[in-house]
Design brief:
The chain has five helices and five strands. It is α+β, with helices and mostly antiparallel strands and 244 residues long.
Length: 244
C-alpha cells in the first residue's frame, strides 16, 4: 500500500485524537460519582429494609392500641349500663349481682388501661425509631441526589468535550485515502492502536526497539510505502526522528 509521507504523518494526529476519545470514554465510566452512588444505593437498600420492618412494627402497635381502646370502650359501656341498672333496681339480690359484676368490670378496665398505657409507650418508642430511619433515608436520598447531579454535570462536560474531539476527528478523515484509513481502523480495532511513530529505532506502539533485520526492512521501504510495525501491528510512521 502506498500513501504520501505527509498523509502518513497525519495518522499520528488521528491516533492522538482517538487516544483522547478513549480517555474521555474511560473518564466517563470511571467517574468517582459512580462509585459514590453505588455505595449510597447499597446503604439505601438496607435503610429501606429497616424502614419496612419499623413501619410494620408501628402498624402492629397501632392495631393493638386500637383493639385495646375498643376493649376499654366496651367495658366502660357495660359499667355505665350496670351502674344505671344498679341505680334503678330495688332487688337486693340483683343489686349484689350487679355490684359483683361492676367490681369485676372495673378490674378488667384497670387491666386494659394498663395494657393500653404499655402499648402507647411502646408505640411512642416505635414511632421515634421510625422517624429516625425516615430521617436517615431522607439524608441518604439527598446525598444520592447530590451525587447524581455531580455525575450528570461531569458527564455533560465530558460528552461536550467528546463531541468537540469527534468533530476534530471527522474533519481529519477526508485527507486520508479510503484504503489507508480502512487499514488504520482495522489495526486499531484488532490491536488497540492504528498508527505509531518510529523514534530512534523504537516503535512507540510497543515501546520496543526494532531488531536489526526489522530496521533494515524499514530502511529499504520507499518513503510512500505503508509499513507495519512488527511488534505492535500499527502503521509505522517514519520521520526525521526515526533514526534510520
Amino acid at each position: 500500500m502506498k500513501a504520501s509521507p505527509e498523509v502518513q504523518k497525519q495518522l499520528l494526529t488521528l491516533q492522538s485524537v482517538d487516544n483522547r476519545l478513549q480517555q474521555l470514554d474511560h473518564a466517563q465510566r470511571s467517574l468517582p460519582e459512580h462509585a459514590t452512588i453505588r455505595d449510597l444505593q447499597g446503604t439505601m437498600s438496607g435503610i429501606r429494609r429497616e424502614l419496612a420492618v419499623r413501619s410494620g412494627a408501628v402498624e402492629d402497635a397501632r392495631t393493638e392500641l386500637t383493639r385495646t381502646e375498643s376493649d376499654v370502650a366496651v367495658v366502660e359501656a357495660r359499667i355505665q349500663r350496670d351502674q344505671q341498672r344498679l341505680a334503678a333496681t330495688t332487688s337486693v339480690k340483683d343489686a349484689q349481682g350487679l355490684e359483683h359484676e361492676l367490681a369485676s368490670l372495673q378490674r378488667r378496665r384497670n387491666d386494659l388501661e394498663e395494657i393500653q398505657l404499655t402499648v402507647m409507650e411502646r408505640l411512642e418508642e416505635l414511632e421515634g425509631a421510625l422517624a429516625e430511619i425516615v430521617g436517615e433515608r431522607d439524608r441518604v436520598q439527598d446525598a444520592v441526589s447530590a451525587a447524581e447531579a455531580a455525575r450528570d454535570a461531569a458527564v455533560n462536560d465530558l460528552r461536550a468535550e467528546r463531541n468537540r474531539v469527534a468533530d476534530d476527528r471527522a474533519a481529519l478523515l477526508p485527507m486520508f485515502p479510503d484504503e489507508l484509513i480502512d487499514l488504520y481502523e482495522r489495526q486499531r480495532a484488532r490491536y488497540g492502536i492504528g498508527a505509531a511513530l518510529l523514534r530512534g529505532g523504537v516503535s512507540l506502539g510497543s515501546n520496543v526497539r526494532l531488531t536489526g533485520s526489522d530496521l533494515d526492512i524499514v530502511r529499504r521501504a520507499a518513503p510512500d510505502d505503508v509499513v507495519i510495525c512488527p511488534d505492535s501491528s500499527a502503521i509505522l510512521i517514519r520521520t526525521e526522528e526515526s533514526g534510520i
